[in-house]
Amino acid sequence: MADRRKNLTGQTVEIAQESERQFMEKHNVPSMLKDVVTKLLANRPVDPLSFLANYFRSSSSDYRIDDIVMKAVQTLTSTHYSRPVFETNLITAFQLLSNSKLSKRLRGMNGAIHKQVLQALCKDVPAPVQEKLLKKIECFDHEAISFSIFRSTVFTCFVLNDFLTLSKNLYTTLDLQRNGKAQKTLCQTSLQQLRKSLSSSKKDVHRIMESSYNLGPDTLYSVIDKAMSENTSQGEYYSHDQFVIEASDIFLSKVKQLH
Fold it and tell me: Where does the Tubulin polyglutamylase complex subunit 1-like C-terminal domain start and stop, copy by copy (predicted)?
């Protein structure tokens, strides 16, 4: 099918007319839409529009290493790590990164690429905390990364992010005057309870139950109330950053050193 039109010189030219279906198939639109809808329904993100925007932004098939990392991080962050579909996303991201072109003949994920992923996942983590975490879980630049290491380190980053959010919320609760300063007694007591709760062993069911009890509202209120009645640190305060970093140190003390 063609349409006859005149060009700037007055000559008649024929312009091929593609059907709508031909146009869509030419640009691989049907398969792309099917893929993104499948992923959208599987992940059910909180912000579907943002999810779609990120998907199409990184839909190019010609990736540099940094682009592959961005694509992998997008896949990993498309759903919360507590959901079953996250395991599938982990595998997808690992396979994508394992196809990275390291040299003319070598493909795979090495420690340098692995570190880029961890840094991207921890972009909102305070710099001192991120540095301490990476010292524990990063690998040598030349080291080949197995799926088990990839999985455990990625999970650690996600759990740390959630832990930091909870720590920030706790500090907001302890900042009674809403002036960016929380009483030292309140903070130290809360941190001590946090330390107790993280001292439990996975194999010790009784300790796990006890750790949940230690951080429960009733227990925390009781312990803080007692500490306030014995308060000898009046006039001393914790800043927001100080509290969050100390809480992070408690968390990081439970993270195993890889090397």
Answer: 69-256
